[in-house]
Design a protein that fits this description.
Layout: H1 2-19, H2 28-38, E1 42-46, E2 58-62, E3 65-72, H3 79-83, H4 86-94, E4 97-101, E5 105-110, E6 113-119, E7 121-124, E8 127-130, H5 132-147, H6 156-179, H7 185-197, H8 204-225, H9 234-240
Parallel strand pairs: 3-4
Antiparallel strand pairs: 1-2, 2-3, 4-5, 5-6, 7-8
Helix pairs in contact: 1-2, 1-5, 4-6, 6-8, 8-9
Length: about 240
Amino acid sequence: MAEALLKDYLNEIGEYYQNGKATEHTYRGTLRTLLEKIELGVNATNEPKRIQCGAPDYVVERNNLTIGYIEAKDVGVSLDKIEKDEQLKRYLRALDNLILTDYLEFRWYVQGEKQMSARLGSIRNKKIVLDKDGVKLGEELLHLFLEHRGERISKPEELAKRMARLAHMIRDIIVDTFREKAISDNINDLYTTFQNLLIPDLTHDTFADMFAQTMAYGLFAARYNHKGSKPFTRGDAAKEI
């Protein structure tokens, strides 16, 4: 059944591609549908591209727990080139379970190391042609990605390292948004307030460090203090903080 889903997925991608007007965003719903059909109980949230320095395009969850992330590029974009991009390197440093795709080829990474890749099809004469062997390999890759379980944290040092990786990614994103002049009004207001009231010579980099550490460790404290058996939500985090 999964093989049939992948073939249907590729056919739909091919129809969009042949239309000639498709962009990277055009294919996102198709990939989301595939992920949620290929393994029941999975929810793939497509995050709209807010700014070029933001988070990965999809967060994939099961039972309200994040199991992985997907960074999607336009059909035909060189993934070899994207692998060298600083943004992807940042994701690989911080995220345990990640897929990079151009909707035809899928590359799966665990803790920054490539585990396997699969190509479902190729572009020939402006058409997308199915690769039967690639579809079978793609089925295996997606199942392994969706079934991945992160290493259990059993020591304070392991928790500290995991949180530091995430804080580092948040810090880099904040620095980049200042550099690209894409910072949100809320964060820019925080920076201005800190500069006016606390640290007159506060730089963007120093503020990004402060913000990232406060975010990471504040959320940890909120989660630790959360009571009850219901899933921990953003609303709970705001309340606990």
